[in-house]
Amino acid sequence: MGAGKSAVGRRLAKKLGAPFYDSDQVIGEKTGVDIPTIFEYEGESGFRLREEKVISELCQLKMIVLATGGGAILSEKTRKLLPEKGTVFYLKADVDTLINRTHGDANRPLLNTPNKQHTIAAILQQRQPLYEKIAHHIITTDHHTTNWTTNQIINHIS
Question: Is the model's pTM score more than 0.85?
Answer without folding.
Answer: yes
